[in-house]
Amino acid sequence: MDQQQTEKRRGPRILTALPVILKNVRGITRDISASGVYFWISEALCAPGELISFSVELKRPVGRMVLTCQGDVIRTEPCFAGFGVAVKITDSAMAQA
């Protein structure tokens, strides 16, 4: 099976460490794309199949922006001193912080 047949992502991922807030717990992204995100948090706050709301903070030369998202949890996995969470983004909105 080649890469195209097994790859389910719709867009390229960008490896980046951005602050994430989920249920008042701060985490950090590993990678992000237009359709999904993978981040690490310290607690198991969600499960596969769950619809979650979270925010990603973006620092720009013109000021800080916050991307507020809703998404379906695709998978969770223990890693480092916490948990990794893969989310398919279903809705998002950008606002200046």
Describe the structure.
This protein is 4% helix and 64% strand. By secondary structure, the chain is mainly beta. It has one domain: predicted glycosyltransferase like domains (Thrombin, subunit H, Beta Barrel). A six-stranded antiparallel beta barrel has the order 2-3-4-7-6-5. A hairpin with a 2-residue loop joins strand 2 (19-22) and strand 3 (25-32). The longest helix has 4 residues, at 3-6. It is globular, with a radius of gyration of 14 Å. The model is unreliable at 1-6 (pLDDT under 50).
Strand order within the widest sheet? 2-3-4-7-6-5
Uncertain stretches: 1-6
Report the structural category: mainly beta
Radius of gyration from the CA trace?
Answer: 14 Å
- The backbone outline, from C-alpha atoms, is globular
User: Helical region count?
Assistant: 1
Which percent range fits the helix content? under 10%
List keywords for this structure.
Thrombin, subunit H; disordered N terminus; single chain
Topology (SSEs and partners):
Blueprint: H1 3-6, E1 14-15, E2 19-22, E3 25-32, E4 36-41, E5 51-60, E6 63-79, E7 82-96
Outline:
This protein has 97 residues and is mainly β. It has one helix and seven strands.
